[in-house]
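Write out the 3D structure for:
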Amino acid sequence: MSSGKDGRHGHTLLGLIKEIFNWYPSNYPAAERNFREVSSARWLLPALEVLWGLCTFAQSRVTNVHQLYACRFLIGMLEAPVFAGTHFILGIPDSPKPFYFTDEDIKLAKKRLDRAKIRKPGKLGLDVFKRSLKRWHIWVFVFCYICMIICGYPDSYMNLWLKEEEYSVVQINRLPTVTYAINIVASWLGTTLAAIYPSWTIYTGATASLVFSTICMIVWTIPTALKFVAYYVLGMSGCLSPILYSTVNTVVKGDSEERALIMGSMMTFGYSFNIWVPLLLFPTVGPNGAPRWRIGWPVSLVFRLLLWAGFILVLLLYRRDSKRSNDDSTQETESYSTEEPPVVVQSEAHIKE
């Protein structure tokens, strides 16, 4: 039978594999193709999802820790490119002509791309690294994702508390599913609302809920019912990552190469922290061990607040850059008279106030 230490090693292995395979978005070479060509990403990413799921199910049949390590290795290898790759490809129209779009629809979409100054992706060369490192985008977004990885680690370990309280095996397996259900709903509802209302309001509301739950965990000696509520409310974290990635697509929409680099860097550096931080802040046993985590929960609270601050900083910097761009466009329009009136591109609904 494997020990908690073996399980921690398996988790560390998964994080290491994610760090290795996350660096380069798996779908990026397809982004250099023409609109009408078949993109390998539309086949690669779903295939990785299916294989990832099969390996996850296979873990239920392992008989020793070495088989578990093998499954975790495969899961990390298959899972890593999917998340960043999916978010990246959703931000570029490089898939072949779908049956539900007419020629007029495609022409209209291309006009909108030109109007919004969104160009086709180019090659991911050294110049991309140089210009990306000179801008604030990659630094702030990577910082936000690192904060998200660190503060979100203890959210899914309600089962350790249930085990400590001597709940039955059936209850230990069933009760935490409420958190995952809330996570799913929050992921869908949060991103939907963020497309209608300012994203900072959704992010602030979710962060406030998570701060409340984290404070409950820091206090720890609270009524059992309140502790259940606190664990379940941690599922609100489901909306944070999708909104953050959609914000990357919005803020860096005009530079596909930089966007690919940012998304790969976010997951790479985020999971590089996930390799060693849990070993220090969230040990399985000991006076500061699970599920009490006397050090881990306070640190999680700090990084939740830093994540929120980083996200707000992104919106403020983006608004500043948009204002400068609009001012420059206005001056250029005034300098050169044209027959057609200038096209005003409205800012994104989920960014505006």
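The chain has a mean pLDDT of 82.
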